[in-house]
Structure formats: C-alpha cells, structure tokens
Amino acid sequence: MTKPALDPTDRALLALLRDDARAPTAELARALGLSRTTVQSRMERLKRQRVIAGFTVTVPDELEAHLVRAHVLITLAPKRHAAIEAALRRIAEVRVLHSVSGPFDLIAIVAAASIGELDALIDRIGALDGVERTTSAIVLSTRIQR
What we know:
Blueprint: H1 8-19, H2 25-32, H3 36-48, E1 68-76, H4 81-89, E2 94-99, E3 106-112, H5 115-126, E4 131-138
Antiparallel strand pairs: 1-3, 1-4, 2-3
Helix pairs in contact: 2-3
C-alpha cells in the first residue's frame, strides 16, 4: 500500500481531530474555512486511506490522577508475540502497548489503583506463558504530553 499524500489542509484537519475527535463537522469546517461537505469528504477519504484508523476516548489526567502508572518492559520467548499481545489486550490496566527494538520486545504502559495492585499486575504480566522477563519503571510525573 502506498503512503497517502497529505496536503496542508489534511494535516490541519488531523491536528483538529487530535485535539477533539468528536468535534462536529460544522465546527471543523469553520476552523478550516471549508464547507461541511468538503470536510466530510476529506474525512471519508482519510478513513479509506487508513490515515484515520479510528477514534478513541482520552480520559483527562485529572480524572485518573490517583492511579499509579508504570512502563513495563517485556522480553518474550521466540514466536510468542501474537499470543502475548492478545493476552495483554484483555488486561484493562494495559493502556498502551508498543512493539520496540532493542533488548526488550514490548513496552506496556499500565495504570493501577495502588502500588499493591500495580505489583500484582506486573506479576500477572510476568506469569503469561511466553513472557521471559519484565522490567518496570513507575512514572513519577509527566513533564511533556502532546
């Protein structure tokens, strides 16, 4: 599949959608100086091209400020990536999962209600068949988030 070409208007539309994916089309059109139907057409094209793969919910940090967050670096046994990914998808406390290069195979960003629950969660991840090792780092504060 070829990489779709994005013009400045597409990039501006994507920036607005990153800020508020539920913004009404009329509001997006006003912000871009375009008609509502033009914005709808662009959004449909971007979905077809899989530039927009979906819409998601982002919970404001202040509503989850009480949660303990950590990055769990995971080393996998050979050929276990798909099974581990599927198992991690079923764990609600896993908020983000990255496949990475280097000494680890995955980085899971997790959130738990307490240190005790975080400890149990990390043990649960480590006990998955095919996980060879986990290393975790508790997030103390977020300095930049874009």
